[in-house]
Amino acid sequence: MNEHVKPVYLEEKLDEIRADGHLAYRSKSLPTWCPGCGYFAMQEGLTIALNRLGIRNEDAVVVSGIGCSSRFPFFVNTYGFHTLHGRTLPVATGVKTANDALTVVAIGGDGDGFAIGGGHIPHAARRNVDMTYMVFDNGIYGLTKGQTSPTTAVGFRSKTTPYANEDQPLHPLMMLLAYRASWVGQAYAGRPHHLADMMEQAIAHRGFSYLHILSPCVTFDKTDRTYANLNMQVQDLPDDHDPTDLMAAMAQAAAHEIPALGLFYREERPTLTDVMNDTAERARNAPAPAE
Ligand SMILES: Cc1ncc(C[n+]2csc(CCOP(=O)(O)OP(=O)(O)O)c2C)c(N)n1
Ligand code: SF4
Ligand SMILES: [Mg+2]
Protein backbone atom coordinates (compact mmCIF):
# COMPACT_ATOMS: atom_id res chain seq x y z
CA MET A 1 0.00 0.00 0.00
CA ASN A 2 1.16 3.54 -0.77
CA GLU A 3 2.50 4.90 2.54
CA HIS A 4 1.01 8.38 1.81
CA VAL A 5 -2.53 7.08 1.43
CA LYS A 6 -4.38 6.80 4.75
CA PRO A 7 -7.06 4.10 4.60
CA VAL A 8 -10.57 5.01 5.74
CA TYR A 9 -12.38 2.15 7.46
CA LEU A 10 -16.15 2.20 7.28
CA GLU A 11 -16.68 1.24 10.93
CA GLU A 12 -14.31 3.99 12.13
CA LYS A 13 -16.02 6.53 9.88
CA LEU A 14 -19.45 5.50 11.17
CA ASP A 15 -18.23 5.79 14.78
CA GLU A 16 -16.96 9.29 13.98
CA ILE A 17 -20.31 10.27 12.42
CA ARG A 18 -22.24 8.87 15.41
CA ALA A 19 -19.94 10.42 18.00
CA ASP A 20 -20.89 14.11 17.73
CA GLY A 21 -24.61 13.49 18.31
CA HIS A 22 -26.05 15.20 15.21
CA LEU A 23 -27.82 12.01 14.12
CA ALA A 24 -30.20 12.53 17.05
CA TYR A 25 -31.73 15.36 15.01
CA ARG A 26 -32.72 13.00 12.18
CA SER A 27 -36.19 11.53 12.36
CA LYS A 28 -36.92 7.86 11.85
CA SER A 29 -38.56 8.64 8.48
CA LEU A 30 -36.19 8.23 5.56
CA PRO A 31 -36.29 11.11 3.04
CA THR A 32 -38.39 10.50 -0.04
CA TRP A 33 -36.27 12.79 -2.25
CA CYS A 34 -34.79 11.46 -5.51
CA PRO A 35 -31.26 10.02 -5.17
CA GLY A 36 -28.81 12.89 -5.73
CA CYS A 37 -31.27 15.69 -4.84
CA GLY A 38 -29.50 18.62 -3.19
CA TYR A 39 -31.90 18.48 -0.25
CA PHE A 40 -30.00 15.63 1.43
CA ALA A 41 -27.21 18.13 2.12
CA MET A 42 -29.74 20.42 3.80
CA GLN A 43 -30.88 17.61 6.09
CA GLU A 44 -27.30 16.88 7.09
CA GLY A 45 -26.50 20.60 7.43
CA LEU A 46 -29.47 21.45 9.64
CA THR A 47 -28.90 18.49 11.96
CA ILE A 48 -25.23 19.49 12.32
CA ALA A 49 -26.14 23.15 12.95
CA LEU A 50 -28.78 22.36 15.61
CA ASN A 51 -26.39 19.96 17.32
CA ARG A 52 -23.52 22.45 17.35
CA LEU A 53 -25.76 25.16 18.79
CA GLY A 54 -26.93 22.77 21.52
CA ILE A 55 -30.61 23.40 20.72
CA ARG A 56 -32.74 20.67 22.28
CA ASN A 57 -34.98 18.76 19.85
CA GLU A 58 -38.10 19.86 21.72
CA ASP A 59 -37.09 23.53 21.53
CA ALA A 60 -36.88 23.61 17.71
CA VAL A 61 -39.77 23.95 15.26
CA VAL A 62 -39.36 23.47 11.51
CA VAL A 63 -42.19 25.05 9.51
CA SER A 64 -42.66 24.49 5.78
CA GLY A 65 -45.11 25.03 2.92
CA ILE A 66 -45.66 22.58 0.07
CA GLY A 67 -43.02 21.19 -2.29
CA CYS A 68 -40.26 18.57 -2.26
CA SER A 69 -38.27 20.97 -0.05
CA SER A 70 -41.27 21.46 2.21
CA ARG A 71 -41.29 17.77 3.14
CA PHE A 72 -38.37 18.68 5.39
CA PRO A 73 -40.19 18.61 8.78
CA PHE A 74 -40.82 14.87 8.35
CA PHE A 75 -37.12 14.14 8.19
CA VAL A 76 -35.84 16.01 11.24
CA ASN A 77 -36.45 15.11 14.87
CA THR A 78 -37.91 18.43 16.03
CA TYR A 79 -41.42 19.80 16.22
CA GLY A 80 -42.74 20.47 12.73
CA PHE A 81 -45.56 22.13 10.85
CA HIS A 82 -46.22 21.20 7.20
CA THR A 83 -48.54 24.07 6.29
CA LEU A 84 -50.23 25.24 3.07
CA HIS A 85 -48.46 26.17 -0.16
CA GLY A 86 -46.91 29.62 0.31
CA ARG A 87 -48.02 30.09 3.91
CA THR A 88 -44.76 29.12 5.61
CA LEU A 89 -43.87 32.53 6.99
CA PRO A 90 -47.21 33.59 8.54
CA VAL A 91 -47.39 30.26 10.39
CA ALA A 92 -43.74 30.48 11.48
CA THR A 93 -44.37 34.05 12.69
CA GLY A 94 -47.32 32.78 14.72
CA VAL A 95 -45.22 30.03 16.30
CA LYS A 96 -42.47 32.46 17.30
CA THR A 97 -44.91 35.06 18.57
CA ALA A 98 -46.70 32.46 20.70
CA ASN A 99 -43.49 31.18 22.29
CA ASP A 100 -40.35 33.27 21.93
CA ALA A 101 -38.23 30.57 23.58
CA LEU A 102 -38.53 28.33 20.51
CA THR A 103 -35.96 28.22 17.71
CA VAL A 104 -38.03 28.58 14.54
CA VAL A 105 -36.69 27.51 11.15
CA ALA A 106 -38.94 28.14 8.13
CA ILE A 107 -38.16 26.12 5.02
CA GLY A 108 -39.52 26.18 1.50
CA GLY A 109 -38.74 26.12 -2.18
CA ASP A 110 -38.36 28.92 -4.72
CA GLY A 111 -41.98 28.39 -5.79
CA ASP A 112 -43.40 28.22 -2.28
CA GLY A 113 -41.42 31.31 -1.25
CA PHE A 114 -41.25 33.58 -4.27
CA ALA A 115 -44.39 32.68 -6.28
CA ILE A 116 -47.49 31.99 -4.17
CA GLY A 117 -45.80 33.04 -0.91
CA GLY A 118 -43.95 36.09 -2.22
CA GLY A 119 -46.18 38.62 -0.49
CA HIS A 120 -45.25 37.36 2.97
CA ILE A 121 -41.47 37.67 2.75
CA PRO A 122 -41.08 41.47 2.97
CA HIS A 123 -43.25 41.68 6.06
CA ALA A 124 -41.48 38.95 8.02
CA ALA A 125 -38.17 40.60 7.06
CA ARG A 126 -39.09 44.20 7.89
CA ARG A 127 -40.65 43.15 11.21
CA ASN A 128 -37.44 41.29 12.04
CA VAL A 129 -39.21 38.17 13.26
CA ASP A 130 -36.55 36.20 15.14
CA MET A 131 -36.48 33.13 12.88
CA THR A 132 -34.41 31.65 10.10
CA TYR A 133 -35.89 31.34 6.62
CA MET A 134 -34.11 28.92 4.29
CA VAL A 135 -35.15 28.80 0.65
CA PHE A 136 -33.94 25.75 -1.26
CA ASP A 137 -33.67 27.21 -4.76
CA ASN A 138 -33.59 24.65 -7.56
CA GLY A 139 -35.14 27.08 -10.06
CA ILE A 140 -38.08 24.76 -10.69
CA TYR A 141 -41.26 23.31 -9.24
CA GLY A 142 -39.90 19.88 -8.31
CA LEU A 143 -42.91 18.31 -6.59
CA THR A 144 -45.30 19.04 -9.46
CA LYS A 145 -42.80 17.61 -11.94
CA GLY A 146 -40.82 20.39 -13.51
CA GLN A 147 -42.62 23.67 -14.27
CA THR A 148 -40.80 27.02 -14.38
CA SER A 149 -40.57 28.96 -11.13
CA PRO A 150 -39.84 32.65 -10.37
CA THR A 151 -36.10 31.86 -10.28
CA THR A 152 -35.89 29.81 -13.52
CA ALA A 153 -33.19 31.10 -15.86
CA VAL A 154 -34.08 32.72 -19.18
CA GLY A 155 -33.75 30.13 -21.93
CA PHE A 156 -34.62 27.12 -19.77
CA ARG A 157 -36.97 24.64 -21.40
CA SER A 158 -39.53 23.12 -19.08
CA LYS A 159 -42.98 21.57 -19.34
CA THR A 160 -44.57 25.03 -19.08
CA THR A 161 -42.00 26.72 -21.35
CA PRO A 162 -41.29 24.18 -24.13
CA TYR A 163 -39.99 27.01 -26.38
CA ALA A 164 -37.75 28.28 -23.53
CA ASN A 165 -38.47 30.57 -20.59
CA GLU A 166 -38.51 34.28 -21.52
CA ASP A 167 -39.32 35.73 -18.09
CA GLN A 168 -36.52 37.43 -16.15
CA PRO A 169 -35.86 35.52 -12.93
CA LEU A 170 -36.32 37.27 -9.59
CA HIS A 171 -33.19 38.09 -7.62
CA PRO A 172 -33.92 36.79 -4.09
CA LEU A 173 -30.76 38.14 -2.45
CA MET A 174 -31.34 41.68 -3.77
CA MET A 175 -34.97 41.45 -2.67
CA LEU A 176 -34.14 40.31 0.87
CA LEU A 177 -31.52 43.05 1.22
CA ALA A 178 -34.06 45.64 0.06
CA TYR A 179 -36.66 44.18 2.45
CA ARG A 180 -34.19 44.82 5.31
CA ALA A 181 -33.68 41.23 6.41
CA SER A 182 -31.18 41.55 9.25
CA TRP A 183 -29.01 38.61 8.09
CA VAL A 184 -28.65 37.57 4.43
CA GLY A 185 -26.42 34.78 3.16
CA GLN A 186 -26.06 32.23 0.40
CA ALA A 187 -24.88 28.61 0.40
CA TYR A 188 -24.83 25.69 -2.04
CA ALA A 189 -25.86 22.07 -1.54
CA GLY A 190 -22.64 20.99 -3.26
CA ARG A 191 -20.53 22.62 -0.51
CA PRO A 192 -21.94 20.80 2.53
CA HIS A 193 -19.39 21.95 5.14
CA HIS A 194 -19.87 25.61 4.24
CA LEU A 195 -23.64 25.02 4.12
CA ALA A 196 -23.68 23.64 7.69
CA ASP A 197 -21.57 26.61 8.89
CA MET A 198 -23.95 29.08 7.23
CA MET A 199 -27.00 27.35 8.73
CA GLU A 200 -25.39 27.55 12.16
CA GLN A 201 -24.66 31.28 11.77
CA ALA A 202 -28.13 31.99 10.41
CA ILE A 203 -29.87 30.25 13.32
CA ALA A 204 -27.56 31.89 15.86
CA HIS A 205 -28.47 35.36 14.54
CA ARG A 206 -31.11 37.16 16.64
CA GLY A 207 -33.60 38.51 14.11
CA PHE A 208 -34.82 37.51 10.65
CA SER A 209 -32.05 35.56 8.94
CA TYR A 210 -32.43 34.58 5.30
CA LEU A 211 -30.30 31.79 3.85
CA HIS A 212 -30.61 31.19 0.12
CA ILE A 213 -29.40 27.72 -0.83
CA LEU A 214 -28.66 26.77 -4.44
CA SER A 215 -29.69 23.19 -5.05
CA PRO A 216 -29.91 20.97 -8.15
CA CYS A 217 -33.15 19.17 -9.02
CA VAL A 218 -31.46 16.19 -10.62
CA THR A 219 -34.72 14.77 -11.99
CA PHE A 220 -36.29 17.74 -13.82
CA ASP A 221 -33.29 19.94 -14.65
CA LYS A 222 -30.62 18.16 -16.67
CA THR A 223 -29.20 21.28 -18.33
CA ASP A 224 -29.06 24.40 -16.16
CA ARG A 225 -28.70 24.21 -12.39
CA THR A 226 -26.75 20.95 -12.40
CA TYR A 227 -23.93 20.09 -9.98
CA ALA A 228 -21.48 20.26 -12.90
CA ASN A 229 -22.58 23.80 -13.85
CA LEU A 230 -22.89 25.12 -10.30
CA ASN A 231 -19.51 23.69 -9.33
CA MET A 232 -17.99 25.87 -12.05
CA GLN A 233 -20.15 28.94 -11.34
CA VAL A 234 -20.06 29.35 -7.57
CA GLN A 235 -17.41 31.43 -5.88
CA ASP A 236 -16.84 32.86 -2.41
CA LEU A 237 -17.48 36.45 -1.39
CA PRO A 238 -14.21 38.40 -1.29
CA ASP A 239 -12.38 38.19 2.06
CA ASP A 240 -12.58 41.97 2.46
CA HIS A 241 -16.38 42.13 2.04
CA ASP A 242 -17.86 44.09 4.98
CA PRO A 243 -21.18 42.43 5.96
CA THR A 244 -22.26 45.51 7.93
CA ASP A 245 -22.32 47.62 4.73
CA LEU A 246 -25.74 47.31 3.03
CA MET A 247 -24.66 49.01 -0.20
CA ALA A 248 -21.59 46.75 -0.46
CA ALA A 249 -23.88 43.75 0.08
CA MET A 250 -26.16 44.92 -2.75
CA ALA A 251 -23.19 45.48 -5.05
CA GLN A 252 -21.87 41.98 -4.32
CA ALA A 253 -25.30 40.43 -4.87
CA ALA A 254 -25.59 42.17 -8.24
CA ALA A 255 -22.01 41.45 -9.33
CA HIS A 256 -22.49 37.96 -10.81
CA GLU A 257 -25.25 36.03 -12.52
CA ILE A 258 -24.88 33.42 -9.76
CA PRO A 259 -24.06 35.54 -6.69
CA ALA A 260 -21.20 34.43 -4.46
CA LEU A 261 -21.48 32.18 -1.42
CA GLY A 262 -21.17 33.59 2.08
CA LEU A 263 -22.58 36.24 4.42
CA PHE A 264 -23.72 39.34 2.50
CA TYR A 265 -25.25 41.38 5.31
CA ARG A 266 -25.84 41.42 9.04
CA GLU A 267 -27.29 44.02 11.40
CA GLU A 268 -28.59 44.05 14.97
CA ARG A 269 -31.97 45.67 15.62
CA PRO A 270 -35.00 44.96 17.83
CA THR A 271 -37.04 41.88 16.88
CA LEU A 272 -40.82 41.71 16.52
CA THR A 273 -41.05 40.21 20.01
CA ASP A 274 -38.93 43.04 21.46
CA VAL A 275 -41.27 45.59 19.88
CA MET A 276 -44.41 43.77 21.06
CA ASN A 277 -43.06 43.43 24.60
CA ASP A 278 -42.15 47.10 24.61
CA THR A 279 -45.64 48.09 23.43
CA ALA A 280 -47.23 45.85 26.07
CA GLU A 281 -45.05 47.42 28.76
CA ARG A 282 -46.01 50.92 27.67
CA ALA A 283 -49.69 49.98 27.59
CA ARG A 284 -49.42 48.64 31.14
CA ASN A 285 -47.83 51.85 32.36
CA ALA A 286 -49.90 54.46 30.54
CA PRO A 287 -53.21 54.71 28.68
CA ALA A 288 -53.02 54.84 24.88
CA PRO A 289 -52.49 58.39 23.58
CA ALA A 290 -55.72 60.20 22.69
CA GLU A 291 -56.60 60.34 18.97
C1 LIG B 1 -52.65 26.50 -3.41
C2 LIG B 1 -51.79 25.54 -4.17
N1 LIG B 1 -51.41 25.84 -5.43
C3 LIG B 1 -50.63 24.98 -6.12
C4 LIG B 1 -50.22 23.82 -5.55
C5 LIG B 1 -49.38 22.85 -6.36
N2 LIG B 1 -47.97 22.88 -5.96
C6 LIG B 1 -47.49 22.05 -5.02
S1 LIG B 1 -45.86 22.22 -4.74
C7 LIG B 1 -45.77 23.44 -5.94
C8 LIG B 1 -44.47 24.11 -6.29
C9 LIG B 1 -43.30 23.54 -5.60
O1 LIG B 1 -42.12 24.19 -6.01
P1 LIG B 1 -41.04 24.69 -4.97
O2 LIG B 1 -41.67 25.49 -3.91
O3 LIG B 1 -39.97 25.34 -5.75
O4 LIG B 1 -40.57 23.34 -4.27
P2 LIG B 1 -39.68 22.13 -4.81
O5 LIG B 1 -40.66 21.03 -5.08
O6 LIG B 1 -38.95 22.57 -6.03
O7 LIG B 1 -38.77 21.82 -3.67
C10 LIG B 1 -47.01 23.69 -6.51
C11 LIG B 1 -47.26 24.69 -7.58
C12 LIG B 1 -50.61 23.54 -4.22
N3 LIG B 1 -50.19 22.44 -3.57
N4 LIG B 1 -51.39 24.41 -3.57
S1 SF4 C 1 -38.06 16.13 -8.02
FE1 SF4 C 1 -36.20 17.37 -7.93
S2 SF4 C 1 -36.42 18.64 -6.07
FE2 SF4 C 1 -37.91 16.95 -5.94
S3 SF4 C 1 -36.83 15.34 -4.75
FE3 SF4 C 1 -36.52 14.90 -6.94
S4 SF4 C 1 -34.55 15.91 -7.43
FE4 SF4 C 1 -35.27 16.78 -5.49
MG1 LIG D 1 -38.18 24.55 -6.41
Number-wise, the strands total 7
Helix content: 25-40%
CATH superfamily: Thiamin diphosphate (ThDP)-binding fold, Pyr/PP domains
State mean pLDDT (0 to 100 scale): 96
- Class by helix and strand content? alpha/beta
Bound molecules: thiamine diphosphate, iron/sulfur cluster, magnesium ion
Largest sheet: 7 strands, mixed
CATH level-two architecture: 3-Layer(aba) Sandwich
Q: How many structural domains are formed by the residues?
A: 1
Number of helices: 10
CATH level-1 class: Alpha Beta
How large is the radius of gyration?
20 Å
Kindly report how far apart the N and C termini lie.
85 Å
**N-to-C SSE string, H for helix and E for strand:** HHEEHEHHEHEHEHHEH
Uncertain segments: none
Our estimate of the beta-strand percent is 5-15%
Order of adjacent strands in the largest pleated sheet: 2-1-3-4-6-5-7
Shape label:
globular
The CATH topology name reads Rossmann fold
Structure description:
With 291 residues, the chain is α/β, with parallel strands linked by helices. It has a single domain (18-285), classed as Rossmann fold (3-Layer(aba) Sandwich). Helices cover 34% and strands 13% of the residues. The protein contains 10 helices and 7 strands. The protein has helices at residues 10-19, 39-52, 88-98, 110-116, 121-126, 172-178, 192-204, 227-233, 246-255, 272-285, and strands at residues 60-64, 79-82, 103-109, 132-137, 183-188, 209-214, 262-266. The longest helix has 14 residues, at 39-52. The protein is globular, with a radius of gyration of 20 Å. The termini are far apart. The structure holds thiamine diphosphate, iron/sulfur cluster and magnesium ion. Residues 67, 109-111, 138, 140-142, 149 line the site of magnesium ion (MG).
